[in-house]
Amino acid sequence: MVRHSKNNTASSVFTYAERQMTGYGTQQRRLGRDAKRGFDTCYLCLSRAREPVMACPQGHVSCRECVLASILEQKQALARDAQQHEARLARDRQARESERAASDAREVGRLALHEVGLSGAGGSKRALDEAAAAAAAGGPEDGKRARARTGGSSSSRQSSFWLPSRAPAAEPALRAPGGEVQCHAAAPHRLQLKRLVQVRFRTSAAGDRLCPSCDRALLNSSTIDLLRPCGHVLCHRCTETFVLPAAACFVCQHRIRPSDVVRIASEGTGFAAAGGPMVATRYDSALQA
Ligand SMILES: [Zn+2]
Ligand SMILES: [Zn+2]
Ligand SMILES: [Zn+2]
Ligand SMILES: [Zn+2]
C-alpha cells in the first residue's frame, strides 16, 4: 500500500512514490558497470575479445576475426558503390548522346523541309516526302524514348501523379562514392589495416587482466594505456611513471615515444553512440483516465 487506507485515485495528485509506480512519464535510470562495454570486449561481437587487436587510433579493441571481417565487408560495399557509380555515369553519358543525336536529326529534317519549301516549284514531290519523313522521325521516336525513361506506356501514366506507383520517378542524386573503412565503436572514424596491433594483456589464472608493472587488476574504471609498437597494456600511472621517462616498454624494453601510447576506450558499442551521459531515458504517453 502506498498510502494508508486510500486509493490511488482518491487524491487529485499523485505522490512521488505513486507516480514512480505507474511507470508513466520520463523514467531515468543510472546505468551501472554492466551496461558498459568492457575495455577488453570486442566492440563488434560484444564478447571478450579473442586474439585482441586494435586497428583504430581511438583505442577500440576487437577480436582479430571480427575486425578483419568488418574491414572486408566494408571494402566490398565500397567497391560495389564505385561500380554502381561508374555504371550510372555511363548510362547518363549514353542518354545525353542519344538525346543530342535525336535533336540533330530533328534539326536536319527541319532544314531539309525548309529548303524544299524555299525551292518551291523546283523541288520534286519525292524530296518533299523524304524531308517530311526525316522531320517526323524525330518526333515519335522522342516520345517513345521519353515514355521508356519514365517507365510508362501512355501519357496518362505520367499525369497520374497521385498514384505513387504511376508517378514518374526521379533517379537518386548522383553522389561520388568516396568512403573509407571505418570503426563504428563511437562516432565513425578511420580504420587502417596496416595499423593493426596485437594487444597483449597480462591475464591472471582467474582470467583477470593485470597491469604487468604494478600487478593491480585493470578495470573499466581504470585508465589503461596500450603501447602501440609492442602491444603491451599497462595502467596509466605505470606508463607515466616508468614507460615515458625511460622511453622504453616496461615489459619488453621496446623503444616508446609519447605518441605511441594509446588510451584504451572502454565504452561504446557498434549499436549505439558513446561518450554521452550514461543515463537511459524513456518517454511514455500521459496517463489516460
Ligand atoms: Zn569480436
Ligand atoms: Zn575506433
Ligand atoms: Zn600499473
Ligand atoms: Zn612491450
TrEMBL record:
Gene Ontology MF, one: zinc ion binding
Biased composition (Low complexity): 149-164
Subcellular location: Nucleus
Coiled coil: 68-95
Domain of life: Eukaryota
InterPro entries, alphabetized: NOSIP, Znf-NOSIP, Znf_RING, Znf_RING/FYVE/PHD
Keyword GTP-binding found: no
Name of one Pfam family that matches: zf-NOSIP
Segments forming domain RING-type: 211-253
Keyword field: Coiled coil, Metal-binding, Nucleus, Zinc, Zinc-finger
Cellular component, GO annotation: nucleus
Disordered: annotated segments: 132-164
Family the UniProt entry places it in: Belongs to the NOSIP family.
Matches recorded under PANTHER family: ENOS INTERACTING PROTEIN, NITRIC OXIDE SYNTHASE-INTERACTING PROTEIN
Designated name of the protein: RING-type domain-containing protein
